[in-house]
Predict the structure.
Amino acid sequence: MYIERLILKQFRNYESAMLEFSPYTNVIYGNNAQGKTNILEAVYLFSQGRSHRAKTDRELIRFGDEYARIAIDFKDSERSYNGQMQLLLKGRKSVSINHVHITKLSMLMNYLNVVMFSPEDLDLVKGSPSARRRFIDSCVSQMYPSYLAELIDYTKALNQKNSLLKILRSKGKKSDPTLEIWNEQLSESGAKIMRSRIDFIRSVNDSARNIQNEISGESLDIKYIPSVRCENISKEKFFEYLMSKASREIDMAASMYGIQRDDIDIYVNGRQARSFGSQGQQRTAALSMKMAQAEYINSLKGEYPVMLLDDIMSELDINRRMYLSERIRDKQVLITSTDTDLIDKTTDTKLFRISNGTVL
Ligand SMILES: Nc1ncnc2c1ncn2[C@@H]1O[C@H](COP(=O)(O)OP(=O)(O)OP(=O)(O)O)[C@@H](O)[C@H]1O
Ligand SMILES: [Mg+2]
């Protein structure tokens, strides 16, 4: 799929702007603080229903204005879409696609798929396990809404269990029938979530390995580290595992085991990337994982998402940059940079110079 046109009105530092994109590489360049990332942010907002960095919609409206608008034209292999979004200083945002009002923002993902890679994504490798779980959960729920429903059920039961564990500890009790009930509910959704995570990580590992190898010649390995350790996970095994840890959980007054404690280990050339990887290796690994997400979306939807690459070239050496450019050549990419020399250009590449909220 690809984006043909983006129109901004009173969005961030743009009073009004229009960009007509190439279906291939688009380079958005200019000095710091001119509005490059703001463009990617607007596109991301249209795919995910929320910004990748703003806490509230109000931040997105140009200082001093009452509303902002985004319009976007995009195409997949079957049809063309026109999307409209209005953000209000006072009031909820409204979105429509082809004149049909979108009531649930999560529906947007059914239309425009994007994968964003920004400097903060280094957290995938260097950050806490929660950043990696967030990556898994957002990738899988985008493709399978039922996964999100399981996560919500799981979290509700987990909160209940945590409150119960605190009470049990304060009463000095070692077991309780209600704890079994919560553990049963957690096992029901937990086992399903684990199975989906296993499948997703297998798919991401397969593609990310190839991508990393292509970009850097390094070997990448992504391993699922589940908190509930057992072969061929099932609801029954999940439950048994939780019950075997019940007394420890009561002692700690916290849920110490379950999918809320899962992690993934990322190895580059056989060593843990977060401890031993160089900056460039870590960045390449995070990028390979994000590009693997694009492959995952394509394998399920038959459409490549649009890649939004925010300032990724500056830390990669010339070889990595070249292989990366090669890799993204035949798909639509919006890439920001302070320096166009860092990006390999072809006749299909379109350049946009951004200066103080104006597209030149
Ligand atoms: N709501 C807003 N109204 C007006 N201007 C805003 C608003 N939010 C952010 N800005 C301005 O937008 C600019 C930052 O835009 P952006 O993050 O896109 O920069 P950038 O070109 O990506 O810079 P860098 O190269 O440093 O990443 C800043 O000048 C900031 O003051
Ligand atoms: Mg930026």
